[in-house]
From TrEMBL:
Gene3D superfamilies assigned: Spore Coat Polysaccharide Biosynthesis Protein SpsA, Chain A (3.90.550.10)
Keyword Glycosyltransferase in record: yes
Molecular function, one GO term: glycosyltransferase activity
Keyword Cell inner membrane on entry: no
Pfam families: Glycos_transf_2
Domain of life from the UniProt record: Bacteria
This protein's name: Glycosyl transferase family 2
Record keywords, A-Z: Glycosyltransferase, Transferase
Ranges of residues in domain Glycosyltransferase 2-like: 9-171
């Protein structure tokens, strides 16, 4: 490739037995020429490039750049950062080795980004079963640049789609370090909240999450404190402290609803719940209260009841399971009404959040 490509697609892979053909073939159908416009960078994470090359057809080997990253860590942050440091493309697109893109996706995203001088394009996302992933729940008729709070962009913490490389440099964006999962949280949020030139590619070609994603190393069960470490680091960071209060609250609400409650629920359901889990969850709530005062105004009554039970020294697993089930009973008064009624119509309050998710 004699000149810089338009898009560099970065694919970390940690298993030499994992097939890449579907992912690579989808990129070849993405509307950009691999000879002049598209760079495909496969980062061989703690494995040799020769092992990956051996599983590719001669045609695919010709168009793929293989680089090695040996950091002995399970997180994709290292390989992504390495490939990013070596890229000269105008845009970056991160794709996981289990996933694919819709036909003409990259060409469509580039056209949108070029036309509106965007720093990022957030695509629609779905599972390979066809089930939509309804994040971020942006305003229903919003076709212009996104507002980080009003369009609830904190609910998409995977930096998928298209990202202008110059914006990454301008904003000083980096992946979280020293964590097994969640390293992309701060990367994505620094972009969504640091730029006013981000759009959702509603109705366009999307990103497809493969069925093997459930077994990825970053989603395997670990102690709750470890699972929440990347989120705790973000909440305690100088970057987060410098955000306006509404932004901090919006991010905190998302992390409580998804990262905290999700982690607690998985452990209650699988009998991984322990005294250490309860203390990690309580510590997380205390951190959120200090980092984003007033965040609880947008939470439902059921959410608040669960938070109070988590920090209570007398609560046990059966009580938490009951309260978890109640907060999942969407549509009941306790799940619709906010703890602070003055926040009933807030963008991330239950009513508007539910409606935006359904109409996504």
């Amino acid at each position: 490739m004699n000149s810089a490509p338009i898009v560099d697609v970065i694919i970390p892979i940690h298993d030499s037995k994992r097939p890449l053909e579907r992912t690579l073939e989808s990129l070849l159908a993405s509307g950009l020429s691999p000879r002049t416009e598209l760079q495909i960078t496969v980062v061989c994470h703690n494995i040799s490039a020769a092992d990956i090359a051996a599983n590719l057809t001669p045609e695919l080997r010709e168009i793929v750049r293989l680089i090695e990253c040996h950091d002995n860590l399970p997180s994709p942050a290292g390989p992504r950062a390495l490939a990013l440091s070596q890229s000269t493309a105008r845009y970056i697109s991160f794709v996981d080795s289990d996933d694919t893109l819709d036909p003409h996706a990259l060409a469509s995203w580039v056209a949108l980004a070029d036309k509106h001088v965007l720093d990022a394009v957030i695509p629609p996302e779905r599972h390979d079963t066809g089930k939509a992933i309804r994040t971020p729940p942006v305003r229903r008729f919003r076709n212009g640049n996104l507002h980080p709070v009003r369009d609830r962009v904190s609910y998409r913490t995977a930096p998928l789609g298209l990202i202008r490389r110059a914006a990454i440099e301008r904003l000083g964006i980096q992946f979280g370090s020293g964590v097994r999962n969640g390293s992309d949280q701060i990367f994505a949020l620094m972009l969504w909240f640091g730029s006013n030139a981000v759009r959702f590619a509603r109705g366009g070609p999307g990103y497809i999450v493969g069925g093997d994603a459930e077994t990825r190393v970053t989603t395997q069960m670990q102690p709750l404190a470890g699972e929440l470490k990347a989120t705790r680091d973000l909440l305690a960071s100088p970057w987060f402290a410098a955000l306006p209060v509404p932004s901090r609250r919006a991010i905190a609400v998302k992390f409580v609803r998804l990262q905290l409650f999700g982690g607690v629920e998985r452990r209650l359901d699988t009998r991984w719940w322990s005294a250490e889990s309860k203390e990690a969850a309580a510590e997380f709530i205390r951190l959120v209260q200090n980092a984003a005062p007033g965040y609880e105004k947008s939470l439902s009554i059921a959410d608040i009841n669960l938070c109070r039970s988590i920090v209570s020294t007398s609560s046990d697993a059966p009580e938490l399971s009951t309260l978890m089930a109640k907060r999942r009973a969407f549509g009941r008064p306790a799940t619709v009404l906010t703890h602070d009624l003055r926040s009933f119509f807030a963008p991330d309050a239950p009513l508007r959040y539910m409606i935006a998710t359904v109409l996504h």
